[in-house]
Amino acid sequence: MCESLYDFAKNLDVDLILFDNVWHREDSITTEFVHFNKEDYKQDFNNLIFDYKLIKDKIFSGYFGVIWTKFYKSAFIKEKNIHFPSHKLYNDIEFHIKSIILAKNISYCPRIFYHYNKSDHESLQTSYRGKKEAMVFYDVAVGIRDFLSEQNLMEELKIDFLDFTFENFILKLTEMSKDFKQDYFLKIKSFFESMGIYPNDFDKY
Q: What is the pLDDT along the chain (205 residues), one digit of tens a residue?
């Protein structure tokens, strides 16, 4: 895997490479997540170089917005000062979004290199589900909001970003313990108000 991706990256001199993955579930069901459907994209991926505009649908995707389907050029990460925030949870979301948007040269290696064993056992994320710690997604959303504004991309990506944040806020608010639900609701409300979005505006989006 590493040798193939390294050679691929050196040949095209890119900032990062996307590659495919497959999820293995305990019920023996497997699901492949392929970045590009080859029937829809008649491309020579051995020589294709692009930026985030080609993959806007993957920037805020829960299935493709993960760091373990990417191969990063370390010099690019250092130059752009991309790092993981100190959040206990969801600290890879900002890293993914920033790296995808800031990368000028992205390529795609159409091979499955990562096998993800999806179990029902408790993970760090599920252990905090419904607890106060899960409210940290608010900080994640604020970090991404500020980044998009700094890059002058909010207008271009606003609908996708709102859809992403609203879906995740609703899910986490639904799971949240009643002890913290009201506080979290008020944080969510303040987040959308900071973007100039109020209850009556949701019909527009």
A: 999 999 999 999 999 999 999 989 888 889 898 888 776 666 788 889 999 999 998 899 887 888 999 999 999 999 999 999 988 888 899 999 999 999 999 999 999 999 988 776 655 556 666 778 888 999 999 999 999 999 999 999 999 999 999 999 999 999 998 999 999 999 999 999 998 887 776 666 5
Q: Which residue has tokens 């019920």?
A: 27
How many Cβ atoms sit within 10 Å of the Cβ of residue 92? 16
Say how many C-beta atoms besides its own lie within 10 A of residue 201's C-beta.
Answer: 12
Pairing label, strands 70-72, 16-25: antiparallel
**Amino acid symbol at 19:** F
**Which tokens belong to 122?**
């408790």
What's the 3-state SS for the chain?
CHHHHHHHHHHHCCCEEEEEEEEEECCCCEEEECCCCCCCCCCCCCCCCECHHHHHHHHCCCCCCCHHHEEECHHHHHHCCCCCCCCCCCHHHHHHHHHHHHCCCEEEEEEEEEEEEECCCCCHHHHCCCCHHHHHHHHHHHHHHHHHHHCCCHHHHHHHHHHHHHHHHHHHHHHCCHHHHHHHHHHHHHHHHHCCCCHHHHHCC
pTM: 0.87
Cβ atoms within 10 A of the Cβ of 17, count? 23
